[in-house]
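Please check this record.
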Amino acid sequence: MLFRNHYYFVFLFAVFGVSAANAGIGQALTLQEAESLALATDPGSKRFQSLARALQEKSVADAQLPDPKLRFGLMNFPVDTFNRDQEPMTQIQLGVQQMFPRGDSLDIKAQRSLIDARTHEHRAQNRERMLTKQVRLKWLELYYWLRADEVIKQNRGLFQQLLEVTQYHYGSGRRNQQDVIRAQLELSRLDDRLIDIKTRQEKVGAELAVLIGREPQSVLLPDELPLLADDFDPEQLQAGLNTHPRILVAQSQVEVGQQNVALAREAYKPGWMLGATYGIRDGNNPNGSERADFFSLGVTVDVPLFREKRQDRRLKASQYKLGASKQMLDQQYLELRQMLDKEYADWKRLHQRHLFYQDTLIPQAQQNSEATLFAYQNDRTDFPALMRARITELDTLLKSIRINVNRVKAQARVLYISGDEQ
């Protein structure tokens, strides 16, 4: 009866998360809080957002005409006297020039900068999704090792009781020394597993602490395992691929390529420069009248006559780059589709195994352990069989927790691809 009551305590502990270790130590860090801390302290997404704002500002500047050029000149000064009124063509010239770029190239450049800004916004979104997935996986992995530590510690008490029973029976002559040695061995193996589990706890806890910006010693987790999604609709999962940030980044790159092609086509159009000059003259004409000032107006036009080696080549280059961007978009979609199919299949199988363990394997392991104990108490089986039954029961319990944690991990991976709104 002692062993049976102990089993029920361990079973309820593993299934419902009765965490004695965390009680009274400090406030537990929920998965949602860990995600918020990681996103708030992550410099990667902030960097992409800053780049996006920089390009938004740049787009305004790209739409403006080039700055006008002011010109000042001294024209036709006589070198013998440098007298301003000696010669009729001597002038002090003031001028201004304004460049007008080809066609709609300014608007195209401004639009390209805005698209580049959206690209960085999408990269920031993907960074946030990636970080959220990483935090979830680390949090869940730490959750497993904490639960495994508690389960084994509870079972260690049971194995300690088995050792005491065998020692008592050996002392009374009912059992041989081999049973005592076997009980001591299994107890030592549990201690070794606890050391290994503690090592894994510290490693995963340190990795999670780095992501959330906390000291590893301060990371405590709640007892209950969170469920990220109740179920998945395959059609909605497929639809979510179209809004994945990686797809949106690739689409933005295609749009940038289209703007580059349009800009290359604008190079076939002429560029204009308008210039005006005012010349100031001193002195008098031969008839005694004052010399008139001069005003000049000129237009400079770029004429793309030799296009084969310049404009044609740049247009073809931009078209090839656009084609490469479209191929990258197709590649990103195929990669995400393959990832989604794999992770969704893993989630379905893990969900089935989780239910199978809860409904079948754990009850069977319990029945086998209880039956073996009853047989051992009535001298109908040996001690190694009892130990195998207890170890199988413990391993089945730990495997059930691992499968349940891996099931939620698979949910995290699916949600990275399809989005939490699914």
